[in-house]
Predict the structure.
Amino acid sequence: MNEGGVWGEPTAVRTVLGSCVCVVLVCARLGLGGAFHALLPLASQWGETIDGESPYRYVDTAIHRLHDLFAMRGAGRGAIQAKVFGGACSMGKGYDVGRRNVTQAFVTLESLGVRVAASSVGGSRGRKLIFRTDTGEVYMRFVRS
C-alpha cells in the first residue's frame, strides 16, 4: 500500500508494519473498505493539517481523511467499524512512536464515534497484513525477528 485510500470494489490491500499503524475502516452496508499506513501520531506536531501534502503520513489526519471519504459516499455515523494494527516498539527505548501511534488511533476513532472491532497492536515484532476491502477480513502474521 502506498499510503491510504478507500475502495468500493474488491481489493486486497497489503502492507508491512513496524512502529507504524494501519487502521482499516469498513462500511458493510455500502461495500466500502479503507486503509492507511501512518508513520507518526499527530500532524500538528509537524505543522501539517488534514489537507496537507500527505494526510496519510499521520494517524490523526489519516483517520479523519478516511472518515470524510466514507461520509462523502454515504456512510453515516455508526455504520463504520475499524480494526487497528501495528505500533510495535521496534526502535528500542526512548521515543516510543509505536505506542504513541496506537494511542492516537484509538483516541481519534473514539472522538469520531467509530467502533473498534479488532486490534493487534504493540509488542516488539512487525506485522504483515492483507486487508480484503469487500469482506473486511484482515489476515495478519508477525514478522520474524
Q: What stands out?
A: The mean pLDDT is 90. The first strand starts at residue 4 and ends at 7. The longest helix spans residues 97-111. The domain at 4-91+101-122 is CATH 3.30.1330.200 (60s Ribosomal Protein L30; Chain: A;).
